Amino acid sequence: MTDLLRAEGVDLFYGDHRAVSGVDFALRRGEVAAVMGSSGSGKSSLLYCLAGVLAPGGGRVVFEGVDLAGLGDEELSALRRERFGFVFQYGELLPELTVEENAALPLRLAGQRKAPAHAAAGEVLGRLGMTGLLQRRTSQLSGGQSQRVAVARALVHRPAVVFADEPTGALDSANATAVLDEFLRLARDQDTAVVIVTHDRDVAARADVTYAMVDGVLNSVAAAGR
Ligand SMILES: Nc1ncnc2c1ncn2[C@@H]1O[C@H](COP(=O)(O)OP(=O)(O)OP(=O)(O)O)[C@@H](O)[C@H]1O
């Protein structure tokens, strides 16, 4: 099977500091990959290279056979908006918008009308147990509720890949487990691949494949054999 997303010899420098060093990585459609490593090992930097947010200083990132370096700014932002989803540690929701409006955002940005966009958002939010909170402003949510909205927003447009940077890192362990399980169940149901950066072994244990990053170098750890 051809890879959905591939990194070949990716380097990333901040000035003289090499944060990502010669990384090779491959992700298949629907696969869940976890990248573990200590603070400062380069996990987030690699994630942003894979997601076309940061341009590598060396090597290349290829998505569906296309080298991201060959895309113009507009093509790259359209790719990120339409084919990728993102979940960050603190949700990064828009506080002035409701739960439903936040989750519908990728569809609205893609030009979909309000009614179908909100219907799709409502359905994903419902699967995350958020049905009673659709009209609430996201500034009035708990941490676990905020992350569920972030997960809904990342998945609502059925992207090919969701990039998740410590998606449950700010939650207590019961909430972290629940949100992660719901997130991965929905992603697997719609065949969305996921790359999760995490410190947490319990998070990594739910992935199909785990990598460890040390000083910018990525090593494969285990295949869970799903
Ligand atoms: N914008 C930047 N400018 C300069 N150096 C940076 C920048 N971002 C990250 N770094 C450095 O690059 C290295 C890798 O950082 P990165 O954030 O990728 O690590 P990480 O493994 O994700 O860490 P954490 O788990 O703490 O988030 C660190 O030494 C960090 O200080």
Would you state the CATH class? Alpha Beta
Rough shape? globular
Round the Cα radius of gyration to an integer and report it. 17 Å
Order of helices and strands: EEEHEEHEHHHEHEHEE
Relevant CATH superfamily: P-loop containing nucleotide triphosphate hydrolases
Q: What percent of the residues sit in helical stretches (DSSP H or I)?
A: 25-40%
Q: Main beta sheet, described?
A: 6 strands, mixed
How many distinct folded domains? Answer: 1
Query: How does CATH name the architecture?
Result: 3-Layer(aba) Sandwich
Distance between the termini: 16 Å
Oligomer: single chain
Q: Please give the count of helices.
A: 7
Structural class: alpha/beta
Total strand segments: 10
Mean pLDDT: 93
Bound molecules: adenosine-5'-triphosphate
The CATH topology corresponds to: Rossmann fold
Written description of the protein model:
With 226 residues, the protein is α/β, with parallel strands linked by helices. The chain has one domain (5-223): 3-Layer(aba) Sandwich (Rossmann fold). The protein is built from 7 helices and 10 strands. It has helices spanning 43-50, 73-83, 99-109, 114-127, 143-155, 173-189, 201-204, and strands at 5-14, 17-27, 32-37, 58-63, 66-67, 84-87, 161-165, 193-197, 209-214, 217-223. Strand 9 and strand 10 (217-223) form a beta hairpin. It starts with a strand and ends with a strand. Residues 14, 17, 19, 37, 39-45 line the site of adenosine-5'-triphosphate.
